Amino acid sequence: MNNDFPRLIYNYCQSQGYKPKKEMINSNSEDIITQFSDFFKNELFSYSLVAIDISKNKILPECVIHLDSSGHYYLSVVRNNIVVSSREDKGDIDRKTIQSAYYIKKSLKPKQAGDFKSGIYSMIPKLALSYSFLVIFALLTPLYSNIFNSKIIHTEGYSTLFIVSLLFIMILAIEYGIRSHIKSIVFKKISFNVSLLGDVFSVFYSSSKVSNISSKIRTIETACLSIWENYPQIFVDIIFIFSFSLFIAISLSYFSIILFMYYLVFFAVGVHLRFSHYKLMLEKNNISVEKGLFFHSLDKNSVQLPYFNVHSFVNLLKVRCIKDEYFRKKIDEESFKWGELTKVNGFLSIVFLFISSLLAVRFLGFPIHHLIALMLVNGRLSSIVISLINRSYQVKLQSYHFSQASEQIYKNFKEEGGVEISSIDEIKVEQLKKSELMRSIGTSVNLDFKRGNMYALIGPSGSGKTTLLKVIAGVDRDYSGNVKFNDYSVDDISDYSMGNRVVLSLSSDSLMKCSLRENFALSGIYDIALIRYICEKCCPNLELNSENLDILDADLLPLSSGERQRLVINMKLHKGADLILLDEPTSFLSKKDSIEFIDDLKDRYRNSIIIVSTHCEHILSRFDRCIDLENKSGIKRLVVNI
After folding, report:
1. What is the CA radius of gyration of the chain?
2. How would residue 266 be classed by pLDDT, with cut points 50, 70 and 90?
3. Pairing mode, if any, of strands 45-51 and 101-108?
4. Max Cα separation, the chain?
5. 75 backbone dihedrals φ, ψ, rounded to 5°
6. Nearest in space to 620 (alpha carbons), one of 390, 378, 412, 455
7. CA pair distance 524, 544, nearest whole angstrom
8. Do residues 554 and 542 touch, judged by C-beta distance below 8 A?
9. Is 127 helix (H, G, I), strand (E, B) or coil?
10. How does DSSP classify residue 524?
11. Taking the domain 4-108, which CATH number applies?
């Protein structure tokens, strides 16, 4: 086997943030292929190689591993759905010549919210060795002070003072360097964790059907960052508190108990005050989220604002603002108390230190010129106690938010995996019962869709046309009955197969809030020539300059509703799926354009199953089958025209 493959696959996995074990580089190709998952240790994902038939799959993953004619394994990237060899002596690879190929599949490990939380906590940066150096330098603080103070008092020349001062500055610079190094390591670890979170969130979006998932994902992201940043600092704070307390105890002997009793009382009062508005903060956050969603809906329906009832609209705004302000005021009051306590602590800690030191000087002969060193240590101890309380509060608060959000996401969660299918030849809907459909037709639905045919779904608004499309696509699972693709239940088919072989375009779909180029990329379209072709076809008046393509959000482009709809649909149709589900795709088109669109759709995707919901009677003659969902004169029926 070739020696380049292990390094190629190792470097690729590193670049993707998979963190493979270094022994992968020295392994042979066969071991990597057969034992791929053993080369990774990841808290959130497991990695495996899955066989793929490149000749039949229309949409390819971004990277494939395959055998060449000489029996060597190679890693090749996929650009614009073309396999590009990683070898310098080869260019594009003909799919038909590839006999055996695999792609890297990531699977989410945690299957429950508790497992996910454990995985997140196991990713907290661990830097015990680096922190130990920092603690050593922190403990030398009183030594610096004593040397510095002694030389100031007893020196007779400026040279000694200069040397001691320079040494003092150098040691502080070293301590700063250690802190910077630790911070960079933590930042690097957290950056890697964030990249993994992005992969987790993509799984959440595709597998969880919880409402308002975006806000929950944002909550999890904020909580994770807080946990990862604060936990290492809490660990350091505890070590510092122990170390500084030990130094004070050794210096002041049993008189240090007076100072420690003060800190114990301060810690208890501080924890009580800081955590007293914990529940208030939770309620405040919930109200803020509700308020934000309300304002977002106002922004989304801004055209309708002038037609709202003014009195009701004003009252709605007032209620949400007053609620938010009430909790904000209560939290501010508690925060004020905490702030005042920290200020008082600065004075009281010195008073109790002075009392303890005075007794130690009088009864134990403690050197009074060492008092400055004790004051330095006490000042740092005081600030670290406050830091510990603050960081512990943040971790507790964010941990609660994390648990709440993750539990809701996992409540209605479809596990990864499932059957891989190479094509969709037939779809059967058997004994389907769904409330929206039952209201229209009064009985269960039984339908059969075959490859090469185009079907129209018609019926009045509310008859269940869009619902039926969602059920067939596997998006809506709240029904009884069966939906089968090639005799496999739609629930058993893998997300990968559904993503590659099904197009679902709803009338409510719109361009994503990112650049136009990024919108195309989400549909797997990267080639600028293809982007220009689709734009000229769907929105010929749009100037495709750098501003419109890369800078402006796509939803801000000067496009009509029909142009936006055509653009969204054509982006999705690009992958040439086996099943195409379109919800009223001609609603913004003229009769002539509607007929041309349907004719073009039928011609381009003659080997696919096409199901279109529509209200346009003038295009019905273009379809092979017409499924009529209607309710006339109280008679509910399902009509299939052949």
Report:
1. 33
2. very high
3. antiparallel
4. 112
5. -105, 125
6. 455
7. 19
8. no
9. coil
10. T
11. 3.90.70
Six token digits for residue 221: 């992201």
Rounded CA-CA distance 167/162 in Å is: 9
Average pLDDT of the segment spanning 92-109 = 69
CATH code, 113-411: 1.20.1560.10
User: What ranges make up the beta strands (E) of 529-632?
Assistant: 579-583, 609-613, 625-632
Topology match between the domains 4-108 and 426-511+557-641? no
Distance (Å, rounded) from C-alpha 69 to C-alpha 436?
Answer: 56
d(CA 525, CA 519): 9
Cα 363 to its chain centre, rounded Å, is 62
* Angstrom distance (rounded) from CA 214 to CA 367: 62
Q: Which residues is 65 bridged to in the sheet?
A: 75, 102
- How far is residue 191's CA from residue 187's CA, in Å, rounded to a whole number? 6
Q: Rounded to 10 degrees, what is the CA torsion of 272, 273, 278, 284?
A: 160
Kind and range of the H or E element at 641?
strand 635-641
Neighbouring CB atoms inside 10 A of 599's CB total 12
Lowest-confidence region among 98-102, 355-359, 451-455, 513-517: 98-102
The reported pTM is 0.72
Instruction: Tell me what the mean pLDDT of segment 366-381 comes to.
Output: 79
Q: Could you tell me the residue ranges of all domains in the chain?
A: 4-108, 113-411, 426-511+557-641
Euclidean distance between CA atoms 180 and 117, whole angstroms: 29
Would you say the C-alpha torsion 516, 522, 527, 533 has a positive or negative sign? Answer: negative
Going by pLDDT thresholds of 50, 70 and 90, the confidence category of residue 30 is confident
The position carrying tokens 């308020």 is 291
H or E element: which one contains 75? strand 73-79
Is 426-511+557-641 CATH 3.40.50.1390? no
434 in Cβ contact with 471 (< 8 Å): yes
Distance CA(55)–CA(66), nearest Å, equals: 13
CA–chain centroid gap for 142, Å, is 46
**Two structure tokens written together for 501:** 């072989």
Measured distance CA(260)–CA(60) in Å, rounded? 66
- What does DSSP say about strands 73-79 and 426-433: parallel, antiparallel, or unpaired? unpaired
Rounded to the nearest 10 degrees, how much is the dihedral formed by the CA atoms of 435, 439, 441, 447?
A: -20
Q: How far, in whole angstroms, is CA 582 from its chain's centroid?
A: 29
- Calculate mean pLDDT across residues 125-129: 68
* DSSP result, 354-366: HHHHHHHHHHH--
493 by DSSP, 3-state: which? Answer: strand
**105, 46 Cβ separation under 8 angstroms:** no
Which of 43-57, 153-167, 501-515 has the lowest average pLDDT?
153-167
Decide: 468 and 445 in contact? Cβ < 8 Å.
Answer: yes
Distances (CA, A) of 84 to 4, 14, 89, 90: 16, 20, 11, 8
pLDDT of residue 146 exceeding 50: yes
Q: How many other CB atoms are found less than 10 A from the CB of residue 291?
A: 16
Beta strands in 368-521 (DSSP E): 426-433, 445-450, 454-458, 480-485, 488-489, 502-505
Cβ within 8 Å of residue 110, ≥6 positions away = 44, 116, 118, 119
Q: Which residue has the tokens 């599949």?
A: 105
